[in-house]
Amino acid sequence: MSYTQLDKMLMKVQKPTRYTGGELNAVMKDAKSVDCRFGFCFPDVYEIAMSHLGLKILYHLLNEREDTYCERVFAPWTDMEAEMRKNGMGLFALETGDEVKNFDMLGFTMPYELCYSNIINMLDLAGIPVLAKDRDEDMPIICGGGLCAYNAEPIAEVFDFMTMGEGEEVLNEVVDAYVRWKKSGKGSKKDYLREIAEIEGVYVPSFYDVEYNPDGTVKSITPNEPCAKPVVKKRIMKDFDKAYAPEEIIVPYGEVVHDRVMLEVFRGCIRGCRFCEAGYAYRPARERKAETLTELCDKLLGCSGYDEVSLSSLSTSDYTQLKELTDNLIEMTEAKKIGLSLPSLRIDNFSLELMEKVQKVRKSGITFAPEAGTQRLRDVINKNITEENILASTKMLFEGGWTNVKLYFMIGLPTETHEDILGIADLSQKVLDEYFSIPKEERAKNINITTSTSSFIPKPFTAFQWAKQDSREEIINKQDTLKAAIKSRRIRYNWHDNKISYLEGVFARGDRRLLPAVIEAVKRGCKFDSWDEHFKFHTWLEVFSDCGIDPDWYLRERSYDEVLPWDHISIGITKDFFIRENEKAKRNETTPNCREKCAGCGANCFGAGVCNE
Predict the structure, then answer these.
(1) Is there a contact between 236 and 166 (Cβ–Cβ < 8 Å)?
(2) Pairing of strands 339-341, 366-371
(3) Rounded CA gap, 22 and 537, in Å?
């Protein structure tokens, strides 16, 4: 691609900095001098992709190799894509502007199910055949990873291979194997795939045959190559304190969603909320030392000029060295007017002292996630917080001067009743009442409470992976019930689009038979499905119908003895544990967190983290 041609195109699009590259700390190499040109592909726009912590880690990890050049490849927005197709330009990488069809390997991360159409569209824009079986030996090897890789069966046949779990070690190993294979004269691609299929955490979809029963359920998932393991087990970084963390980060030219230094304090979660795939998929919980994080923060602030630091984890207040770390960071940041934010706080284990310390520079809103409106339903999902926790914590915040509180709930949870829906309105009102219980002269003005609901989607590798997903009609009725039940104008109610949740639910527990529909939907213009302005729900329904697919079938309740499309993948947690948790949910019984008592989930097979404490 000539830069003159690109310059002309950028004059016609919104946010041209999405496509220029050249940012501070971006890596520039001689592409002709390396053995492996790797494109890290994020199937969404620049400002979403550049907020992704996994990209920051793996980009710099691969670029520390002398034999590899990792470049960034993002989905162009619709205006830029139109210009590219009009001018015959293929998908290109930001660092060199080279078209990615000439790279050695393209790695797509899959952070959410609704990015699948973008993956198909990006390959089409690159001029690369979508199906792995249709690509010849000269085409790039296409791999996938990320949270959705644990059940990416709806688009599995797109990928030459996928990596399960954390990528820091396994990605280096597959690149090592690629470089050896290339230097040996590049035999058939299948020879390379056979070699890496023996690496723990690597899944080669073409090495597995899927058979179906007459009723449409999966009959079997069987390896068809000797090198393919019957069950592919995820990889983790056992010593997370020593795991790779970049000491430089790219500073975007334009605004991105999370425009700050992010410190990953730990991976995994001790809580065991029964709906949360990430909480189980990243087990066991493993921490970095406060000293390690303090040193890393100093380097990242020094190389970037950012004025905000955020602690990243699934439950930041469960970090055992939180006080020591925040004391260290405040000492570093307060004088320089650098803000410190602590997202993902638990409502039952944070203090006003902590909040006042970390928000001296700027006071932002607070988000809590009660998840359910009644104690019974919070016990069903194993949230392990009480109404007393919620009210005491919000009152503490109101007394401390906070007036912007967001309460996050789910509707459509297993065993949910009409009373549970009304409980959301009731709890929201009780939170507002806590504000008014403070004498007028002592409370801050302009109270702002936002009650937000999303629709429950049963996810693989959770205790609720067998559950039925509510129909769109049921979700709409529940949303209307809640809207009518919220009486105060001081409580704002937001809700998630039921149509988007419907499609996400289909893909979350889908199988390989969905791929023709995804490909056809992209041909009919579907992409950026997580963006309201581009989501074409009726097109998706038409495509499912034309492809002979009943999407409702994927939202049904499933039995324990049914073979699930992801049964050949292991996250280290046993199916027996998930069954026990599902049965406890039906009895409204809770399970203690990992530090209180081991529940025998199976994650101790990794011999790491909280399981070894």
Answers:
(1) yes
(2) unpaired
(3) 37
Check pLDDT > 70 for residue 359.
no
Contact 286, 237 (CB under 8 A): yes
Nearest to 106 by CA among 127, 85, 87: 127
Backbone angles phi, psi at 271, to 5 degrees: -85, -45
Whether residue 349 is predicted with pLDDT greater than 80 in this model: the reply is no
Task: Say what the pLDDT of residue 358 is.
Answer: 66
Within 547-593, where are the H helices?
A: 575-586
User: For residues 77 and 96, is the Cβ–Cβ distance under 8 A?
Assistant: no
Question: Contact at 8 Å (CB) between 202 and 144?
Answer: no
> What share of residues in the chain are helix, strand, coil (percent, to 5)?
40, 15, 45
Q: Which helix (H) or strand (E) holds 60?
A: helix 53-63
CA-nearest of 407, 488, 490 to 445 is 490
CA 338 – CA 340 distance, rounded (Å): 7
What is the structure's pLDDT at 198?
Answer: 97
The mean pLDDT of 549-556, rounded to a whole number, is 98
φ, ψ dihedrals at 88, nearest 5°? 70, 30
366-371 β-sheet, strand order: 366-371, 404-411, 448-455, 491-495
Name the pairing type of β-strands 404-411 and 448-455. parallel
- What the block records as the tokens of 348 is 């039952």
Half-sphere exposure of 70 (CA within 13 A, CB side): 21
Diameter of the chain by CA atoms? 79
pTM: 0.96
Query: How far, rounded to the nearest angstrom, does the alpha carbon of residue 113 sit from its chain's CA centroid?
Result: 9
Crossing angle between the packed helical segments 167-183 and 53-63, to the nearest 10 degrees? 40
Beta strands in 27-183 (DSSP E): 36-42, 68-74, 105-109, 141-145, 161-163
pLDDT per residue as tens digits for the range 448-501: 999 999 999 999 999 999 999 999 999 999 999 999 999 999 999 999 999 999
Distance CA 485, CA 423 (A): 9
- The count of C-alpha atoms lying within 13 angstroms of the C-alpha of 218, restricted to the half-sphere facing its C-beta, is 23
For residues 352, 358, 363, 365, the Cα torsion angle rounded to the nearest 10 degrees is: -70
Both tokens assigned to 193: 């795939």
Contact of 305 with 299, CB cutoff 8 Å: no
**How far apart, in whole angstroms, are the C-alpha atoms of residue 335 and residue 122?**
45
- For the beta sheet containing 308-312, the strands, ordered from the edge strand earlier in sequence to the opposite edge, are 261-264, 308-312, 339-341
Structure tokens at 150: 């644990």
Q: What is the mean pLDDT of residues 45-55?
A: 96
Percentage, residues of the chain above pLDDT 90? 86
